[in-house]
Amino acid sequence: MGCPGLRRRPPPREAEEMLEEIRAEFATTYRQTGCKRPSRRVELAMLRIPRDEFVPDSLKPHAYANGPLPIGHGQTISQPYIVALMTELLRPRAFHTVLEVGTGSGYQAAILACLVRRVISLEIVGALAEAARARLARLGIANVDVRHADGRLGWPQEAPYDGIIITAATPSIPPALIDQLKTGGRLVAPIGHIHDIQMLTVLIKHADGATTSNGVLPVAFVPLTEQIR
Ligand code: SAH
Q: Domain segments of the chain: what residues?
């Protein structure tokens, strides 16, 4: 594994502390999630991606706190524990191509970039897509393609995907995304009504096209929207 192109630098002490908090939260939620602790691959990705590069300047002192932060345009960068958990639930493998819906800051995409071959990430807010693209390029992360598009339609050009991750709340999974998932593939998403608590859900697509879903943990995400801007 590697974080392609990412300049090596020792992780700051804050990143080590963030990882400790993530491990502690994995342990306390183990009964619900079935994940006792993050896998070593996911831990290394969380240590190597500099979260401070993904938050606004004024919030840099809080970049390694285990909480969500605002990134402008009414959007947020997810809590590190949730990023680690969703990554774990996706079971990323080095040869995978993953579709992300909701690029936001690009942080989740950067974590995935360390773990899979290629990430296609869709963002509906043009300014966020642009900023994330520039940030990932600056960090030398070259295996993420950010597209300014409505993620509810997926990205059929590169389908099917080994895994799909939706990082915004949706009452139900858009059918196009299930169509674009490989047989045996996993889709991880917060399912439920917006302005409410959602259920972090893992959907698996079976050989006969049928799907099974498992609710894992209550979470709170910003909504998946319909308005491209
Ligand atoms: N993964 C992000 C956090 C996501 S916040 C990170 O690591 O920072 C949710 C993001 O989904 C927001 O940026 C929002 O603009 C975007 N979004 C909402 N609806 C969308 C849609 N229909 N298609 C693509 N992106 C969408």
A: 13-219
